[in-house]
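User: Fold both of these, please.

Assistant: Here is the first one.
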Amino acid sequence: MDNSSSSVADHLHKLCSTLSSDPDGAYELAISYLSSTGDKPRGVQDEKLLCQKVHSRLASISAKDADKFDECYQKVKSSFILKQRSAVLSLLLALSESPQSPEMSTQQLFPIPQLTVPKPLAASSTGSASSKSTIGSLNWGNKASNSNQSLPSDNSNMAIANYTDQHSERQCIREAVLAATGVKLRAPAPAPRPAQALLARIAHLGFLHDRLKEFIDPASGLMPQGLMGEGLVSSIRDELTEYYRSVALLQSQACDSDGGGGTLRRMCVWAQEPLHRLTWLANIAHTAHHKKGGELASCVHRFVRHGDDRVATLARRLLTALTYPLLLMLTRWLMHGEIEDPFNEFFIESRSGVPIDRMWHDKYRVREWMVPSFMSREQASQILATGKSVVFMREACAHEPAPAAHAQSLTLLLQPPSGTEAEQEGSAWWEAPELRDAVASAHTAASQRLLTALTTHHHLLDHLVAHRRYLLLAQGDFVHHLMTLMQ
């Protein structure tokens, strides 16, 4: 079999040398044509087989998706726009069969560094492609060929590698990792100007880290007070914990002892996303200095309307965490008419020493500067009137209201959303339409119960009729009595 194939190849090469002035090029062209003659019917069969595989995989998940795929495939097939349909189908099938690790399915606050350098190909694979790799290669001479091991593995870092050897490069990487966590070095190793620029960019992470650590330190005096301030501090601590985790993975890869770690440029590329996130965290923390309650929520809410989606998502996550105590106080006020506010963070104030006959007018009022910016003044007035109605029925009318339908809506708002839902627009409690509906229904129900109690149990209409008769003095009895006395 080998002899016959070699004889065919020899005859083909002789034919090419006889018919063409470039026998090698003609031989390669003939081989390509001969090897591609049977591809057309086979490609059609492969396309049908791939289409059946994709359809069966989608049908096992959802019949609706399978029908939609058939419809899209018929449109693409009849339009003649996409020529490489088999390649696209094989790519889709390969993507569906590729395993998805559970660690990568969850959203990471900070990117996981991937600084490992790919290993060189085997000698057998490089030998087959030697003719292509030599095209355009530089002739370094004997001296360069003997020092191939000293060349850096990353061509993008060539400007730094020309000035520093492997030991100084690894030392700069260690210093960069320490600087990213805010560790101050006593005597940094001398480095060239390009490396110093990269180190300064990475060291800015340490500066932002120190600002955030100072903000969440109780001894610094910058940490916001109250329950809502603790919610913000807890969220920033979670962000720093994820940052420490990412830096630890970076250190394990960058400072690898086998020389397969990264370079300063790779670290600088990794630092782009943490630098952006820590910068905006520091900006939010700076605006939250000495703020509390609704005023603190308004400061963070300004960043939710930011044009950058990453900044808006970060601010939405922080705002949802810090306003959960506000939701608890709001729910307690609407359902029970009680204010549990040890740090004066609620936008409704309860004044002590007010007599019961002035309770409706003077005991409760709205702190205008404490109303969050995501809540309108009309909503704040409705919330105030709802709580006052509940308190008036309990204190003045001695009537404990029964739980209404809005209590279930408020209870559902107390359930914290998952990590992915908390970052989606419209899913947080403070921007959900269910909050407005629950407040409106609570206001209507409380007002109706109060009016019913006053008219039924306390005979409000009878008292008003009596006052009317007293003011009018029984429709003329006063005049009749005056005429009698005058006579």
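And the second sequence with its predicted structure:
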Amino acid sequence: MEKLTVTIATCFLLCSVLLLPPPSSNIFNRLKSNLTTTGSYDSKKPREKLLGGGLLATEFDDESCLSRYHQASLRKPSPHKPSAYLVSKLRSYEKLHKRCGPGSDAYKSATVKLGLKPGNGSESVGECRYIVWVPYSGLANRIISLVSVFLYALLTERVILVDQRSGISDLFCEPFPATSWLLPRNFPLLGVWGLVTRSYNAYLSRADERLGIQVRVFDRHAGYLQHVMDQIVACTQRENLLPELSTQVTNTSRSKRLLKVVLVTSLHPEYSVKLKRMFWEQPTSTGESIEVYQPSEERVQQTDKKLHDQKALAEVYLLSLTDNIVTSARSTFGYFAYSLGGLRPWILYKPVNRTAPDPPCVKAVSMEPCFHRPPLYGCQAKTIEITPFVMTCEDSNPGLKLVDAPE
């Protein structure tokens, strides 16, 4: 456990840098020009730092996948450094994938045996063993399951193959050099990274501080609910994430004000509208300037709709770029966002009887996502054993999550 410190959050980081179109895309030249003229992409940085401290292979050129190199310019330096052992495991896996992946003799034999049926989950051909990822449920659930399968492949020396019928190739670039992870089917790669960079440059880049608020209502009358709005305000003000309102106008000049941008993601626009109106109608007690931005307002979850999934993935990435984040209980969308950003979130407790709970939220003990249904081995299993590395989730019981071992 100490030697191979691989976590789900690490795998999220690996996925995070694969959101770009190829250089043939029309958006490529526009993005490259913008990032160059604004100076946000520093090509002089060591390639290792641009690629997550060695988490990603250096064989790809800069233009093969924009986010592979440009994502480092949008983030603050991470305090989490990958171990040399982890980096060596990743390099070994890439060699295995090239030897056994699409185009190899072993793969040609395997595709006959595997087919594209969900029932064929894990198979082997000669020295090469495979595990096939098949999409299920909404976008965040799919991404969490995808990185979990990759982690399993890494630990068991299997080759991950991805069923792309859900359009995964519309969201991610190829992660491994000189090979592919896709089962046969061709899709064009589109510009998720364009959605990210346009929003970042227009709304987030100017901020002195960025707060993400992810709102997901699990209610048959889902939509705008006043008690949820009350809970969001109570949490953010109690935890000093947003300032209290004042009845007096401060004399602080605009040039000296701290600008805090609040990024709200929700299917419904009313939560961001209420926040925006709140900080427009009254000044803040601290003199801070608060701007509220919501990228989309889809109203209804539209899983498997290409543009909807692309917007969702872009919003997850934008949330991961914030300094602090508040997420809804049991939301895999929120899990994906804060794990990707390496952030410990404030989790909103699930309301009971349509009443805002008190306290309204709790600070998570780690950046790892919660697994709502942990496996119970054997029909006789009655309890889940807790170890120094595992605890029950703050927002789901009997869910489990990874934590740092006590000193």
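Residues 1-5, 20-41, 116-121 have pLDDT under 50 and may be disordered.
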